[in-house]
Amino acid sequence: MKNIKYKALLIIMGCQTIFGQNLYEKSQEGNEENWPVHEYTLTINKDMVNKAGKDVMGMTVNGTIPGPTLEFTEGEYAVIYVKNEMDVETSVHWHGIILPNFYDGVPYLTTPPILPGKTFKYEFPIKQSGTYWYHSHTLLQEQSGVFGSIVIKPKEKLLDYDTDLVVMLSDWTNEKPMSVLRNLKRGNEWYQMKKGTSTPLNRVIARGAFGAQLNFWRQRMEGADLADIYYPAFLVNGQQQPEYPSFKAGEKVRLRIINGSASTQFWMTFGGGMPTLVSADGLNVEPVQKNKTFIAVAETYDFIVTIPQNGKIELRAMAQDGSGTATAFIGNGDVLPAEVVAKPDKIQMMQQMAKMKMKMGAHALKFQPKKDERFEMKKEYGMQMDGMQMDGMKMDHSKMKHSKMKMDIPKDSTLNKKMDHSKMDHSKMTMEMPKDSMMGNKMDHSKMKMDNNNNNNNNNNNINLPGGKAGMNVATTQIDSMDTMQMKGMGMFSEYNYDYLKALENTSYDKTIPVKEILLNLTGNMARYIWSMNGVPLSETDQIKINHEEVTRITLNNLTMMHHPMHLHGHFFRVINKNGDYSPLKHTVNVPPMQEVTIEFYGNEYGDWFFHCHILYHMMSGMARVISYDTPRDPRMEEFPVSKLVKEADMFYSWSMLDAASHMTEFNFVASNIRNQFNIMAEYGWNQNLEAEVTYERYLHDYLRIFGGVNIENEMEDSLDEISTTAIVGVRYLTPYLFNLDVRIDNKLRPQIGLSREILIFPRTAIFGSYEYQVDFGWVNDLPVGDDFANEVVWNAGIEYFLSRNFSLMASYDNRFGAGGGLSVRF
Ligand SMILES: [Cu+2]
C-alpha cells in the first residue's frame, strides 16, 4: 500500500511542476538548503488617514495603506519581522504562499498573535513565483489598512514583458469596521439606502415585479442583495484615481492586480488594446485575451498590456453592485476609456430568480447543528428541478460543455432589425449545447432567453424571436466570446465561471490516490447577518478532518444570494472547470449565488489550516472552518487556544434605539450573539400608559426562538395607579412573508398573540405596524360577573423616514398613546 502511494506521488510530481516538486512535499521549517536570506521589517501602527474625504483612524504598515510591496525571487529564504506598535494585538497572513504551518499567520490557530509592543519573526522558503499579498488575520484589521502586496520573480523569466505595476484594489469605510459589522447585525437597510441599491416597494411595483417580491418575502428574503456594506471610496494602491504616467509607448507592462478588499468584488475593464491574462492567483495560466474580468475578494490576476502610442489606458474596477468604481490611468495623453459595465439590476434579478423557482432560505442556523443534513439541505434548497429553466441552469455546469449548436436567426425578423441597434457580433452568435439533450428538444417550447451581461440597459433589449415565445436580451456592447452570451436562467450567474482559466500543465491527480469527498452548502441569513456552512457556523462545529497523501474534494454549494470567495490556507486547489485535466490551480475560489463549484487538493501538508469566506464580515459571522490533518498541535501554540479564534466569530453585538415623540417615548436595547439574545423594551405614553419588558431569548434556528422574561404594564387605562408585573414565556417566529409572530402566556395564564411587520415603501421611507391580542379566560384573575373572558388589544401603525444611519423621523398612532411624531435615534 505504501508503495502504491509512493508511486502515485511520483506520478503527480512528474506531471505537475508548477512550483517544481516542492509543492508535493511537506513544508519544512528552517533554511534547510541555505537559500539566500531576504529580510523585511514591517511595522504596524495606528495612524490618522484620509482616504475618502475624512480624517479617520486607520492601521498602517510602515506608515502607509496599503503597506509596502515585498519583493522576492523564487529560491530565497524570507525572513520578515513584524513589529506591532499598536495597543491591540495583530497578525500577518501570507496569502497564497506555501509555507510551514506555524508561519501561516492565523492567530490562535497556527501562529501566536503579535501582542502590543512585540515583534514576531516569520520565516519561510520561497518555493513559488507570482503575485500574492499579505494581510492581518486579526478581526477586521485588514479593512482598516493592514495589507500589502507580494511580488515573487521566477528563477528564470517565463513571460515576455518589460516592466510591472502592482494594482492593489481595496474598499474603504470611514466607519470603524466593528461598527460596520454591528450595523449589519442589527439588520437595518441603511447601507443599501446610502448606496442607492435598496429596492423599496414603489420601485418594485413600478417595474411590475410585485409578484417576484412576494415570492422573495414568502421565502423570508427582502431581495437580492449583492453587497452588504456602503463604501465611500474604492481604491487602487490606496488612492481613488492614481495616474501612472512613467510608462513609455510600446512598453509591455505586467499588471499585477490584487483584490485586497474586505468585502468588495469588482468587474474590471481595460481601455486601449485587448489585454492578455497570463496568471491567476499567482500561477501562470494559458494566456488568454480578455477584457471584462470579475475579480473576487482575495484573488489576483496578472494581465500584460501594451502602452499605446497615444493615450493612457483606463483601468476601471467597478464594485459588483455598481455602488462605486476605482480607476487607474496607465501611460500618457488622452484617456482611452474602459468599457463601463452596467450596474446590476436587482429588481430584474429578483424577477429572474422567481421565474427560475429557486428555493431560498436554507437555514444559516440549524435546530440540531450536530445532525448531518447536508444532502437533504442540498436537495431541498437551490434550483428546483422542474421545467426547462432548470435544465438550462444545470447544463451550464455539465452537459453544455463540448458540443455546439447554432441558432439560426432569420435575417428579416424583427430581431435582426433591432439587433442593428446593438453592436452585437452576429458571427459569434453560437451557443454551446448538446445535440441530444432534453434541452434541445424542449427549446421550442421554452421561454428561453438570451441574456447578456454587458447589457447597458436591461429593459430595452428584449427581442421576440419570431414564431415562438422565446425572447432575447441582446447585448448593446461587443460580445467578445461565447461565454458572454447565455440563456437566461443559466446565464444569470454563469458569467462568473472560471472556464477562461486553463492550467499550463495537467493538474489532475493520479486515479489511484484515495479521494475524500466533502459537501459544504454555503448558508446565510442576511437579516441576522449570520453566515455558515451546512447551516452550522464556526462556533458550533468540529474541525474537518482530512488525510495526508489523499485528495480532498470539496463541493461548495452556495444556497445564498451572495458570492462567497472561499480561501484555503497553505494549499492550491484545482477548480474543476471545462478544461478537465487542465483545470486551474487557485487559492481562492468565488462561488456565485445558487451555484455549485468543486475544488480538490492533494494533502501534502500537516497541521490545521483555515478555510473561510474571504468577505471578512462573513468570516467573522461564522462562514469558516478548520481543515485538519489531525496531527498533534504545535507545542509553541500551547498558550494560544484555538477557542479564542472560534469565539471571535460568535461575539455579542448590542444596539439601542430611542424614539422621542410627542405622544410617547420608547427605548429598545438588544444584545445578541448567534444563539442568544437579551432584549429590553420600555415605552411610556404621556397619557400615563406604560409598558416595559425584559426578555432573554434563544434561537432554535433562524426563524424560531423561545423566550422568557418579565413584563410590566399599567392595569387601568390612562393611569399609573395599578402596575402589574407578570412573568412571560413564549415563542417568537419569523413567518413566511416576514411577519414577526409572538405567542406567549403570562403567569396569570393569559395567552397573547402578536404580529408585526415593517416594509420599505420608498427609498428611505418605511411603514410599520404591530397588533397584539391578549385574552383572559379568568383562570387566575376574577372576571366581572357574567363575562366568560376579557380581552385586550394593542396596536400601532406608523411611518419612518431615514435621515441618516443614526436618525429617523417617525410618526405613529398607538391605541394606548394616541397619535404623534418625533425622532428615532439608533445607537
Ligand atoms: Cu461570504
Explain what the structure shows.
The protein is mainly beta and 827 residues long. It folds into four domains: 120 residues, Sandwich (Immunoglobulin-like); 226 residues, Immunoglobulin-like (Sandwich), CATH 2.60.40.420; 104 residues, Immunoglobulin-like (Sandwich), CATH 2.60.40; 174 residues, monomeric porin ompg (Porin, Beta Barrel). Helices cover 12% and strands 40% of the residues. The chain has a twelve-stranded antiparallel β-barrel with strand order 40-41-42-43-44-45-46-47-48-49-50-51. A six-stranded mixed beta sheet has the order 10-9-12-17-14-15, with no helix packed on it. A hairpin with a 3-residue loop joins strand 41 and strand 42. The radius of gyration is 29 Å and the shape is globular. The N terminus is likely disordered. InterPro entries: Cu-oxidase-like_N, Cu-oxidase_2nd, Cu-oxidase_C, Cu-oxidase_fam, Cu_oxidase_CS, Cu_oxidase_Cu_BS, Cupredoxin, CuRO_3_CopA. Keywords: Copper, Metal-binding, Oxidoreductase. GO terms for molecular function: copper ion binding; oxidoreductase activity.
What is the gist of this entry?
The protein is mainly beta and 827 residues long. It has 14 helices and 51 strands.
Low-confidence stretches: 1-18, 385-490
Q: What bound compounds does this protein have?
A: copper (II) ion
> How many β-strand stretches?
51
Q: Give the number of helices.
A: 14
What is the CATH topology of the largest domain? Immunoglobulin-like
The CATH architecture assignment of the largest domain turns out to be: Sandwich
Protein name: CopA family copper-resistance protein
Keywords: Copper, Metal-binding, Oxidoreductase
Domain Plastocyanin-like: 47-156, 164-312, 516-629
GO molecular function: copper ion binding; oxidoreductase activity
